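Milestone M4 deliverable, item 7.
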Amino acid sequence: MPGKPYATPPGAAHGAARDTPTHGGPAPVTERESPPTRRVIGVLNLLADHPRARLSLTEVAARLDLSMPTTLGILNELVEAGFASRDDAKTYGLGPALLRLGWSAETGLAALDLVRPHVQALHGKVGASCVLSTAQDGTIVLLDWIGAHLPGDHRDLVGERFPFTPPLGLVNAAWSADDVVAAWLDRSPLVPVRDDANVLDDLIADARTRGYLLERLTGNPTTANIVVSNVVASHLPSSVIATLLSLIPATDWSEYVLGPPAGAHLDIANVSAPIYDRRGTHRYTVTIAPERTGVPEAEYLTWIDALTACAEAATAAIGGHNPWAGTG
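Output delivered:
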């Protein structure tokens, strides 16, 4: 059968169900279609395409080319189940039960399953390590890491948690609402931060406009942020971690680039971009982590294009939208 995932077996009637055991084995997968189910899906999709409108029985039937009795039967069942709602004017819209389904799909692993293929494709394009993270409950959670780790570092960092506390987490906060950024900044920093509110405000505004944030390599061999994150994820006794953090010099936001200068070769630690959910909330952060020196402009611009395209595709995959679009 053209367009079907399984071919019709020899001798079987076109469109017939293949649900009877053969040769004593398990029943094959069926090809049976369900026109009634398609009609129900059509009604739900129609209501979803007009979320703020109320449609009459006549309008639903006409738009889907269904009979009035069939349409009424479907709508009655959907209203009973809470998937549609009916008001006193006998018009129909989406029902409250769909909120539960949407929340379950958004908060479950399904969203990650939709995002990960885009991160894997990004790794295939740029070759550098790609990291997927999220911020929740005051922590940064590393959800996935595709590619090589730092030389000599063989830890499995997937699932690792870091404090969502300055100086860590700018790439997990920059595209969030202003109150989330303010709450992040209010936390006591892990190491002293030479705070310049204007610099940080400019960085965040630039990141929201451009759709990415670039962190330069500023130390030998890495950045202060990476040193801090490795210390807090070392699983050493808390007293030892506190002592090590106290030895790290004060940091600032100078490792982040406010718009890459034209024609420059850059020492790049990582580049990050946001993935948004259906509410426009910054849900995930996807990061390219090349940790390379002297990267020519043409190469890192190619990385940035691939990164932002990945973030946009992943946002679309989970039904999200960029709340900062058009604000620059």
